[in-house]
Structures are given as structure tokens and as C-alpha cells.
Write a structure and sequence with these properties.
Blueprint lengths: L8 E4 L3 H12 L4 E5 L7 H6 L5 E3 L5 H4 L4 E4 L11 H5 L4 E2 L1 H8 L4 E6 L4 H14 L4 E5 L15 E5 L2 H4 L9 E4 L7 H4 L2 H9 L7 E5 L14 E5 L8 E5 L6 E4 L2 E5 L8 H16 L4 H10 L8 E6 L2 E5 L6 H14 L4 E5 L9 H9 L3 E4 L4 H8 L3 E2 L3 H9 L7 E4 L12 H18 L1
Parallel strand pairs: 1-2, 1-4, 2-3, 4-5, 6-8, 6-9, 7-8, 9-10, 10-11, 11-12, 16-20, 17-18, 17-20, 18-19
Antiparallel strand pairs: 12-13, 13-14, 15-16
Helix pairs in contact: 6-10, 6-11, 10-11, 10-12, 12-13, 13-14
Length: 448
């Protein structure tokens, strides 16, 4: 392992990723100091393992002190233009992130790098399961689950990493074996400032990549790289020699590759065209690694999705009930709604509402109108969603919203909880909201 010789390395930001960086450096004998601008940050376990390490918090952290370090590992939650970094940058103190530490520790380890505005967690999890089924020793993490540096202890021969724009914006080229930007729509503009800056941050994932997987229908997902880069595409339309696609109608609708059918859509455990795109993106990674697709197809028959992300949780009066409580913004809920509507013969009853975080819901309203969804708004901003769409009804609670949908929902229909809002007006988290929805569905199913 190559480690720099320095007076000390400062780890700035002591969230989950920052503490993983600190543990990694300290375990390899690198002199480290710790800092977090929050006055109350829980580092008791870290300091118990490494007593005597200098740790400053709150007002003790200032730009002049930060600039005294010989290297600063900056956590993803700290923006590149944060005033704390100005003096360090002017003194040309190296500012690095956890990806840089990862590559320094394991320069030759295969990395599958996955980003995008929506679907990252589902595709990352799918790829991990598929590669394991193909015989690779895989560890999965990054922005999902475990911090990437902790994965180095697993003895894996391949890391599958979900990466956020925050993690990517400061990363040096890290040469992933396969990289993908699943899709691009406006997000985190409060951090990046504008869409071009968000695009640039996401596309740093392709730096030094050996192969890429590209969403054929999203031009912003396509890397601006040389023609010699190995590229696998996916599309919800026709396949090609280098493109996964969807062909056929009804029960004969299937995923194709190289003009041949691989698996029928109704054999997938996940539902909705948005999850069909996720499935093909994951297959694209397997293909880019030159692995056998057969084990990966078996995974698709078993994997029903991540909790609270478009998972079928029951059936009432013949209508499927889908928990997408993780849909906490318009983009995620639009993908869930349109994907489900295009995959079902019947109607979609959309349950939406909560803390809208200042959104105007105009984009969601257009999607509701386009697919002719039946809308039930609930919670604090439920009425605002109904007003934006110009249709639907508003109730107070999630239970009332489900019951309102079930009055008319029938065989072939779907009741979709995809709130397009945070949960904090009525729930502790999106997890609690999704768990209540699943409990309500189970109770209604028993009572029918």
C-alpha cells in the first residue's frame, strides 16, 4: 500500500464516510487529526479505538487551522466551495476524497461504479447479486450501505459502488472497470448551482473507465469519450447488437439482446418499466464484464426490489399495492408512476403528499395527467399536489388515502404509494411511512 509521508492528514467531516476514512488511515499508521463543524458529533467509538487523536468540533474548526494539514480528506457532505477550504486551497494543500483513498490503497481492484439521478440503489444491489451469482467475490457499498473503505476488509475481487455527485465532484480519475450514469434530471442544484455543474460532477465517473453502460434514451447519460471505449446500451425500445431492449406485446413482451429474447417481462420479480430499465442496466454491467448472462437472469426472477422502492407488498380486491415510500421527490415519483402505468393494463391510483420541501409539483402534475392517474393527496402538501394536477381528492392520513383508492381499485389496477414528498409532517422517516403502508395493505387484504 502506498501512503504519503506527511505531518498529518486531516479528516474533515465525521459522518459515516468520514469516520471510515479515519479508521482506514489510522489502521495503517498514518498520523491523523479529525474535525467536524457540528458541535455534537458522535465519535466516541472511533476515539475509544484510537485514543489520543486530536479531534476538533464546532467553533474549534476554522479555515486557518484546516490549512495547516499536509493533506485534507474532505467528506462528501462538504462542498468544494466551502469557506473552510479556501486557505488550504490557496496554500495548495491536497484536498482529496474517499475514492482517492480507496484507489491509493487498492490501485488494481476491479470497481463497478454506478451513479444517476434515480435507480442507483436498485441497480447497485442488482449488480452485486448478479456478479455473485456469476462467481465473483463481490462487496457492495459506497453511497448505499457500507462506506467504500470498509469494503476493503472483505477480501473481494470486485467492488460495486453506488456513487453520488457529492462523492464524484472531487474525485481524481479512478479507472473503474465499468461505469454508468443511469439517467440525468435536475437534482441537488442547491449544491451544484446549475445543471451543467451537476452533469460534470456525475460524468467524472467515466474518467479512466474501461467500459461503460449507457441509457440509449437519455443523451445526458452518454459519456463524451473516445470511440474505442467499450460501450453497452439499454433501451425500453428495440434491441441491437450492443443494446439491451424490450420487444413484443402482452405476455410475449421480453428483454432482448443482440436481437434475441433473454427473459419475459412477466418473469421479472420487479414491476414497472422504470425497474425494467434498472434490470437492463444491471445486465449491461454483466455483459460489459464478459460474464455469463444466465445466472444474472435467474437473479431477476427472484429480486423484487429494495424495501420501500417500488415493491409490490400485497393485493387487495385484485389490485396490486406498491410501496415506493422512498419516492421523496418529484423525479422519483414520476419514474415510478409512468413506469408502473406503462406496464399495467389498468389504472394507477397514486397516493402522494407529505412535506413537499418547496416543490411546485408542476412536473408531477403533468405526469398524472399524461397517464390519467387517479390521484389521492394526503398530509401537509397533499392539497397542493391535487391543485397542481387539477384533479383528485385530498384526505388527511395515509390510511384514509389507501381506503379512498380501494373504493374503486379493482383487478388489473395498482395502488401506488409514491409521495413525491418527505415524510416528516406525519412520520419519523420514509421507512416508517412505508412500513405503515405495508401494514395497512396487509390488514385490508385479510379483511377482504
Amino acid at each position: 500500500m502506498q501512503l504519503i509521508a506527511s505531518t498529518y492528514t486531516l479528516v474533515l467531516g465525521l459522518g459515516i464516510a468520514g469516520q471510515a476514512c479515519a479508521r482506514h488511515l489510522l489502521s495503517h499508521g498514518v498520523p491523523v487529526q479529525l474535525a467536524d463543524t457540528r458541535a455534537a458529533v458522535d465519535v466516541a467509538a472511533l476515539l475509544a479505538d484510537y485514543p489520543g487523536v486530536v479531534c476538533r468540533t464546532g467553533d474549534q474548526v476554522d479555515a486557518a487551522w484546516v490549512a495547516q494539514a499536509s493533506e485534507v480528506v474532505v467528506s462528501p457532505g462538504i462542498a468544494l466551495n466551502d469557506p473552510l477550504l479556501e486557505q488550504a486551497r490557496s496554500r495548495e494543500v491536497p484536498l482529496i476524497g474517499e475514492l482517492d483513498l480507496l484507489r491509493r490503497a487498492a490501485p488494481d481492484l476491479d470497481i463497478v461504479a454506478i451513479t444517476g439521478t434515480n435507480g442507483k440503489s436498485t441497480v447497485t444491489t442488482l449488480v452485486g447479486k448478479m456478479l455473485a451469482a456469476c462467481g465473483r467475490r463481490v462487496a457492495v457499498g459506497g453511497n448505499l450501505g457500507r462506506p467504500m473503505l470498509d469494503l476493503l476488509n472483505d477480501g473481494a475481487d470486485c467492488l460495486v459502488l453506488e456513487l453520488s455527485s457529492f462523492q464524484l465532484e472531487r474525485a481524481r480519475p479512478f479507472g473503474p472497470r465499468v461505469a454508468t450514469v443511469l439517467n440525468m434530471s435536475p437534482d441537488h442544484l442547491d449544491r451544484h448551482g446549475d445543471m451543467p455543474s451537476y452533469y460534470k460532477a456525475k460524468h467524472r465517473i467515466f474518467s479512466g473507465a474501461s467500459a461503460c453502460v449507457v441509457n440509449f434514451e437519455d443523451a445526458l447519460s452518454r459519456p463524451l469519450v473516445g470511440e474505442n471505449l467499450k460501450m453497452v446500451e439499454f433501451s425500453l425500445y428495440a434491441s441491437d447488437f450492443h443494446r439491451f431492449g424490450v420487444e413484443g406485446q402482452g405476455d410475449h413482451r421480453a428483454i432482448y439482446f443482440r436481437l434475441k429474447p433473454l427473459i419475459k417481462v412477466n418473469e421479472l420479480a420487479m414491476v414497472g418499466d422504470h425497474n425494467l430499465a434498472n434490470a437492463m442496466a444491471a445486465l449491461g454491467v454483466v455483459q460489459a464484464l464478459d460474464l455469463d448472462l444466465a445466472p444474472a437472469l435467474d437473479v431477476l426472477k427472484q429480486f423484487a426490489g429494495l424495501p420501500h422502492r417500488g415493491v409490490v407488498c400485497g393485493r387487495v380486491n385484485g389490485a396490486i399495492c406498491v410501496n415506493d415510500s422512498k419516492g421523496t421527490n418529484e423525479g422519483a415519483s414520476i419514474a415510478a408512476l409512468t413506469g408502473l402505468a406503462s406496464a399495467l393494463p389498468g389504472r394507477v391510483f397514486l397516493l402522494a403528499g407529505g412535506d413537499g420541501k418547496g416543490a411546485d409539483f408542476s412536473a408531477l402534475a403533468k405526469a398524472v395527467q399524461r397517464v390519467d392517474a387517479q390521484l389521492i393527496g394526503f398530509g401537509r402538501d397533499g392539497q397542493q399536489i391535487v391543485d397542481a394536477a387539477g384533479r383528485g381528492q385530498r384526505v388527511e392520513t395515509l390510511a384514509q388515502a389507501l381506503d379512498a383508492a380501494l373504493v374503486d381499485a379493482a383487478d388489473g389496477d395498482a395502488v401506488l404509494l409514491s409521495p413525491a414528498c418527505a415524510s416528516f409532517d406525519q412520520f419519523a422517516s420514509y421507512l416508517a411511512r412505508g412500513e405503515q403502508f405495508e401494514a395497512l395493505v396487509s390488514a385490508r387484504a385479510v379483511a377482504q
